[in-house]
């Protein structure tokens, strides 16, 4: 029965030390709350990065330029037909001189 007494004494000492540690933890929690307020300020900086999405408007202007290039190709085909007619006229002049 005497062996149980030192075990009870050991448990009672641990409970006393545990109460002192709980008081120290409450002081640490107050310091952590101040750090959380600083993290909220960093979230405001992320909203400024969303304003850079205005670059998508430049892509719409490029589509309009492609439509103009298709019209230029049709004009080049008409010029090629006129050059062929001029070559035929030159051949007729050579036959008259001979």
TrEMBL record:
Keywords from the UniProt entry: Nucleus
GO biological process: one example: nucleosome assembly
Database matches in InterPro entries: H1/H5
GO cellular component, one term: nucleosome
Spans annotated as Disordered: 1-98
Ranges of Basic residues composition bias in the record: 16-98
Domain of life: Eukaryota
GO molecular function: DNA binding; structural constituent of chromatin
Name this protein carries in UniProt: Uncharacterized protein
Organism: Halocaridina rubra (Hawaiian red shrimp)
